[in-house]
Amino acid sequence: MGLFKPNIRKMRAKRDVQGLIKVLKNKDRDLRGEAAFALAEIRDTRAVGPLIQAMKDEDMSVRRSAWVAFVEIKDRGTIDTRAVEPLVQAMKDEDWWVRRGAAEMLGRIGDARAVDPLIQALKDKDSDVRESAARALGKIKDARAIEPLITALKHECWWVRKGAAEALGEIEDAAAVEPLTQALKDKDSDVRETAADALEKINSKEN
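RE: above sequence
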């Protein structure tokens, strides 16, 4: 970039994707973050690879910005499975927000390689990450997740229990019937309602 400061606003207006991708490597962390947000607005799939790299940035705020941009592009269309391994690595990030987002995206992509890391994330120290991991496992619908999700039905946080119940309903395996029936007695009404919906899905499949 030389001695000139990139004009992110102008680059965004011109939809200069390649120029913004270059800014993702700028020494100025604020510029890197602004470039990621600009790419989020443009939503061009050419930015996927560079944004994946930016999710490894040394600065937490840049990683978050790259994550937001990545989600925006994914919402526009399909992202191939090259994103799976970097997202699995992002599940180890020090920032809970990044871990939660990575779990959510792995669920959207639906690749079976994410199952084991997501099962591990059911034990994450942050409850929001646990919930996102549970929901992601429900979208992937892999039988390996059934027992860990049943265990998560007993988590101290109601939103984790709700996420686990929802995921078990998505997987639709009869092994979850008894645990979900017990969850109908949960002290939280949202958990009870979700467990009832999950049981209805499983019973519909069985019948």
